[in-house]
Amino acid sequence: MKIDGGMVNAFIEGKTEVDSKTSEMIARRRALLGPAYRLFYEKPLHLVRGEGVWLYDPEDNAYLDAYNNVTSIGHCRPEVVKAIADQTATLATNTRYIHESILDYAERLLATMPDEIGHMMFTCTGSDANDLAVRIAQSFTGGLGIVVTETAYHGITQSVAEFSPSLGENVDLGPHVRTVPAPDTYRLGETIADNFAESVAAAFADLKRHGIKPALFICDGIFASDGIYEGIAGFLKKAVEATHAAGALYIADEVQSGFGRTGDAMWGFQRHDVIPDLVTMGKPMGNGYPVAGVAVRPEVVNEFGLKARYFNTFGGNAVAIKAAAAVLDVIENESLLANARQVGEYLRNGIRAMQAEFPQIGDVRGAGLFIGVEIVRDPETKEPDMATTTEIVNGLREERVLISACAKTANVLKIRPPLIFTRDNADYFIAALKRVLKTCIN
Ligand code: PMP
User: Fold this and answer.
1) Rounded to whole angstroms, how far apart are CA atoms 329 and 314?
2) Predicted structure pTM score
């Protein structure tokens, strides 16, 4: 089976039968949107509305959403909808005018970060944020060299795609990019901290040897597309030290792990007791409204700011900021960090309880409500089982429960429900997974 840029469960034309209406829409989509788009699942899903943790198809069938981390406080949250509507009806201008909400929001957001991080710049997407962060890091260091994990995804601009190996082998990495293996705690156990830091140091040494000055090490706070490795808290610290020793900066890509996803903290990097030079964020920041950004140490962006002006037409516009502020309100008011920790733990334990019956569940890991379940042929050899993983993802879709898969070997179930997930939702998920495992395994 071919892994299409990490999307193992993508719909493949002609592979499965779909009804005539779906088939018609797929053909129309292909004709209008062109060849670059992919659809999830062997039987693609047509959705028309969402509410809380549920998504609905045209027949009003409900699907439990255990995947979409953008709408992390629940689909169509009334608080965010109202904030967007009110602000759109009042003023929708950009950052070239003085506006108080952006200041209030930046203040609130920076207060969730270490004191060393003092500025907040706004963009529209995570790719946009990473692109800007890299420009700043390259300008500060005077280097170009970038170190990333081997199945990382950081976005789609030209410069960011060049260090997003999960886009697949047809998308070339830049000559200034080196990859390091993912911190595979399942196979390497507690040696991971030294092992990972050594790989990062070696990658920087290799860049230097080829005349490429180091600029940055970037990693996603939970290694989402690499296979979801929360690692032992603190394991990242040595890799960050190796980065600084090479004269490079550390960019924490919090697009996946930010805004409480990992449960025990607002940001994924906080589990590791490290202070990034730059932090990028996006996805759940506006619960569906496009808003993203870069938080940065003042000394890192100072010269860049004097040399280059920064303006992003929609980034940080008044409406985006109101949406983002409403998201922070809900996270705080509903104690969603604690909920993510508690329900995440409950869900992981529920899945672990199935390991005795299904030993092909090799590893259950993650932090908060970001859970990875590694499917193997045999727990002794730990040989990845991509085919069964794909079957499980599609089987759950038939059960009307939505997840996906990740990792270089595409054998890790990627479970990432909204942060408002309850224990009842977790029980519903576990029961569906059990039914699917009974049909896919044995
Ligand atoms: N970084 C990470 C870790 C991501 O997962 C993504 C999106 N999947 C991005 C960056 C890019 O974000 P966007 O799609 O908003 O450009």
Assistant:
1) 22
2) 0.97
The per-residue pLDDT for range 290-316, each reduced to its tens digit, is 999 999 999 999 999 999 999 999 999
CA of 164 to the centre of ligand 1 (A): 10
Q: Is the CB of 256 under 6 A from ligand 1?
A: yes
Q: pLDDT digits over 96-147, tens only?
A: 999 999 999 999 999 999 999 999 999 999 999 999 999 999 999 999 999 9
Residue 3 has pLDDT above 60, yes or no: no
The domains located in the chain, with CATH, are 2-73+335-440 (3.90.1150.10), 78-333 (3.40.640.10)
Contact 113, 267 (CB under 8 A): yes
* C-alpha distances out from residue 289 to 47, 59, 85, 110, 275, Å: 18, 26, 11, 20, 28
How far does the centroid of ligand 1 lie from the alpha carbon of residue 256, in Å? 7
Backbone dihedral region of 65: left (phi > 0), alpha (psi from -120 to 50 degrees) or beta? beta
Given a contact cutoff of 8 angstroms between Cβ atoms, the answer to whether 255 and 283 are in contact is yes
